[in-house]
Amino acid sequence: MESRRNPRAVVDPKVRQVGFFTSSQPDSSSTQQQQQQTDPIPASASSPPVSTISPSGNSLSPVMIPPPRLNSSDTFPLRGAAAGASSAVSPSSFSYSNRRDFPDGSTTASPGRHSRGSFVKSSTPVASSLPGIGMDSMAAAKSSSVPASGLTTVSVVTMPPGLAEKASGMEVQSDQKKNPKSLKEKTTKAERRAIQEAQRAAKAAAKADGGKVPPGTSASVASTSVKVAKPAKPSTQKNEVSVAAGVTEKKGGPSEKDRKKDAPHPRMQYDDESRVVKAKRRAVVKQTEAKNRVELFRHLPQYEHGTQLPDLETKFFQLDPMHPAVYKVGLQYLSGDISGGNARCIAMLQAFQEVVKDYSTPPEKNLNRDMTAKISSYVSFLIECRPLSISMGNAIRFVKNRIAKLPITLSESEAKAALQSDIERFINDKIIGADMVIVKHAVTKIRDGDVLLTYGSPTAVEMILLHAHELKKKFRVLVVDSRPKLEGQLLLRRLIKRGISCTYTHINAISYIMHEVTKVFLGASSVLSNGTVYSRVGTACVAMVASAFRVPVLVCCEAYKFHERVQLDSICSNELGDPNAISKVHGREDINYLDGLTNNANLQFLNLMYDATPSDYISMIITDYGMVPPTSVPVIVREYQKEHLLV
Amino acid sequence: MDFQVVILAGGFSSNLVPLVSKEVPKALLPVANRPVLSYVLDLLESNNLKDLIVVVEGEDAALKVGGWISSACVDRLHVEVAAVAENIGTAGALRAIAHHLTAKDILIVSGDIVSDIPPGAVAATHRRHDAVVTVMLCAQPVSGPSESGGSSGKDKTKKPACEDIVGLDSWKQFLLYIAKGTEIKKDTRVNKSILCAAGKMELRSDLMDSHIYAFKRSVLQEVLDQKPAFRSLKQDVLPYLVRTQLRSDVSSDQNNVEENGNGKDNMQNNEVVLSQILSNASLPSFHQVYESGLDSRKTHKCCVYIADESKIFVRLNSIQAFMDVNRDVIGDANHLSGYSFSAHHNIVHPSAELGSKTTVGPHCMLGEGSQVGDKCSVKRSVIGRHCRIGSNVKIVNSVVMDHATIGDGCSIQGSVICSNAQLQERATLRDCQVEAGYIVCAGGEHKGETFARR
Description:
heterodimer, A: alpha/beta, seven-stranded mixed beta sheet, 29 helices, globular, B: seven-stranded mixed beta sheet, IF-2B-related (chain A), protein biosynthesis (chain A), Translation initiation factor eIF2B subunit delta (chain A), IF_2B-like_C (chain A)
């Protein structure tokens, strides 16, 4: 094999890619012939499928293949440690020590203090003579949105935390009394005297005509010091007083370091007690394990579904390091607002784009490393919300790769722009573009008078059907659906709106309606390298019935969803859904016969999300590299995976 | 998280006369000897919200509130106080500070709530649905003095307080209808198109609007600009948004325009496909179904977050509520007070002096430096700082604020004695309110009266 590979490296990959493409009249046999020339493995495609497993088994033993490492979590302990340390420091000690460290700190602080003073007597005309007012108007000029004093604190927010705390801590008058020492260090005697005098005068003035001054005068004071007063509405004049600031650096969630390190392994064995406990300790999302789990699927995570969402919601403001876009996507995963491989992947990538857009490198850190760490922590959060799909794993790998490959010489803005366009390109080329190509290939397979069966609501198949309808092909669609998600109904609604004639049935009736079907189009969550199609639960059943009736089964799957893993059953890697979803019917209290039985020790619910369809049942896989038999998947994985992950 | 928090602290609320006065705006009314505003601030702080804007009606009140915040929240919070004119309503107050609002979403919290419901939940719901407004609803609180007090023979306070009537969709996610219970006389109008689109509406009167809202900033500002007549968030803005949710004329998505503006055909095509994939993947709400049925109709979502019933939520908006809050905070909901209770379920400050044979029952609080004479009995009451209470005084189910003086032999039940008030000997008060600094003559027997200077 090696000897064959070496010369191939010389060949331009693009030329060979043409070989895989089925042109306008694609023919599976011709593709196979092409492959026979290039590779020995698919050559055996013509032989019975059982034997095809063995060559792929030779190259990649199913047991030995490691699961994908999705997060390079434990690579950057330094950064996290720094974050942890800063969070541990108490705010008060921060402000004092910093004052000495940064000589200009006291100057930033003094306007704040003055403005505080001016607030106390802002209703007195005397106040306008105070230095504080002068500072105010200066500040007001700086940012016109806040008319009155207290602008110094507004700027606090944008400062790095250490500085911010120091400035804000000093704004408070009492603070100044408490630690005159530190003030002395910075100001001369004369200055201090002046300040003291001013304050004394201010205090006296405030006492003299404290609350008696009519509001009109205060308004006039405000308008002298404030340029942005609205003349039409004097009532809207306001004295914004920044009173106190200071951010206690207590972080709600676990520190970023922890989060990074412990991204739960995507294929953690959840029946391993100690690991589960460990993973739980660091989880952001509170995860209560469901009690009655089916023995065979103990190794998969299953949580009480009711508890996660409210808990995560209540922590909304406490997850400091989380980006809002990522948080939103996580919430949507958790609540099931977004489902479907492509949509989840796109939503995640778009969130990452937002992250990149809002990113700024912390001081003394490297963009490449810090960003990778950030993305890792986000990914671990998303995993807690819902286990990643394989397509998402590939997309994450792509993003991380791009970050790692960014040249160090690039400036931050350039790097960010490059990354954003990379992600954009991935969405456009690998997902949407791939779908377009798939549609082009698959439409050629639809003839007039066809009866097409589809299961669930696969995006690619929907696009194919719509496109075929636009081409005025005459065909009928059978939408097969299953509880509890009933995604098919949504597809049905959209198809009927376009005027495609449809039949809708549930999967129970599959063996009856298969008689009239001429082709079966299925979607896939992933295609594994032994040709197994990993897809929505029920797909295997449909494919098996179809192959028993000798109906061709075409699986539409973008190549970015391919994975080198080999899986022989749907037990070792799967996802468990909400058990309540199958035990209850929403809005039909009259048929909820299982009420009160959900916690019975003798009853276990199994709501599997995926199943694995063996390659025997699949006639053809339609990808963006053309139509290939399932046996050719390893070729695509081997030859193109690297390319399209690295782009 | 791109949220700005606005606390509407009110001014001198007329509902609470005579408890509020020039010296004590509503936000500073003591609940278990802490201003009620401190409960809101604590709640927000515990949720990591440290950048707050407090809106106060009236300059004087703003000065008072600002002064208190500066002394209490030093080093903890970044608070800005804005004073707005009195009687311009909640919507008017927001209009006045609208140009300070810059974040994507605004969380609006009433300044008079005592609660442990995390505001983050509202924000998260808001974000998840990309809603225009999200309202927190909570169960109606039980009003009236607690039965175990024993003193309330007649249950006159147990009126069926139907505060709000809300209509929810079948998943209890969207708000379809809202009205104030007192406004509805005999019949009311429900928008037919909303009812048709949602299919099913659940009308509930056991839920109450908690005055915690999350608004999309752009929409809020637009509505406030377009409808200058709107005075109240709850009575004008919110019903308006709910009413118009299927024929929205607020631009909830500005980025639509941007996306369509640039790019080649190919790119635009991709965008369309992209948004289609995303929208097809999610379970459509009835808004989307409605939108797809009729072209060129825009909708926006009004969501609700229904707080868990085990959470505590009280609004201090009437004298009765004031009594209830004080009772709850030192009674059932004592984790909110922040004090540590003694083994007898009460708090007696170490500097307080008790005479001989004086008993302080459970669920009581005695502030710092207060003196209580001999043979007194204090039950289920809050007594402020530096009060002087004579001998043979009975105080049940009452609130006595700071620096009050109560003469010998007084009996106080279910009453509020404001700060610096003075009760001369043998005064008997039942369900009364005594204004700050008022002097009640000796020996009088009063029931359900309000003592205030004219």
